[in-house]
Amino acid sequence: TTQQQKAEKKDMKVISFQDTLCALWMNTQEVSFSDRQALQNALNEETIQQSIEKYHLTAAKGVITPEVKMDGQSYRTKENEVKCFAKSISILKAKTIAKSMGEYTLLCSEKESMSNIAQAMIQSWQKQLDAYLKLEVVSETELEERVQAGEYDLALYMQMPSGETVENALGDFLAGNEKNISLLNDRQFANLFQKAQQTEKRTDWEKAEQYLQKTCCCIPIAYVSRVFALGPGVDGIVIRPFNGGSGKAIYDFRKATREE
What we know:
By secondary structure, the protein is an alpha+beta fold. The chain has helices at 2-9, 33-42, 45-54, 91-98, 112-129, 140-148, 166-171, 187-199, 202-214; strands spanning 13-26, 58-59, 69-70, 73-74, 105-109, 134-138, 154-159, 218-230, 234-235, 238-239, 251-252, 257-258. The protein is 37% helix and 22% strand. Strand 5 (105-109), helix 5 and strand 6 (134-138) form a beta-alpha-beta unit. The two termini are 29 Å apart.
């Protein structure tokens, strides 16, 4: 990014984390499963990909971000990538569903990159489904408030998992979790999650993530990096992803030093 390049030119140490997920969130209490399927099915991956590349974002390969760890390594690998735009139903069926679809509104922030991606979604639904959804562009503060309160239908929104483990990241989608902004309440997902907790096997966590994608509660769009810069000569400061995660501070200054 431009800010990162400017910092590096000033001999600042730059640390970045891809710990935030930008996704199309669907309020499962407001948008039926069949409507969610139709909306997901009609998204034009190529058009959205162009917007992602334009703003130097990284296309998401599942709800779990690259900073989430398993056995000391990133959980996210080439082998367990999720097809976020996979077509679960035919376009003919999606169009049939769309004929009786509710009048939904897509919320997004006024940030240029987000409004651009949101507009691409609106156009996809118009073209593929003859569905004319409303787009409401609001401040980041209002977007945050409404999504957290569950007062939305659809939202293009960035959320950080509650911690660096797969259990943290997927646990955010369990009923009753304060991070469960899609308000998903799915027994089968809960069962798959519980099994993975017990076995601690990567394959079981992958099954839970893959099933989660099929619920269409959250369509991953991009991984967003957060960048931190340390002044010249500053060393020893520990900066943690996920704002420190569960039970830890984001910064650790105990071994901080500075060369004059």
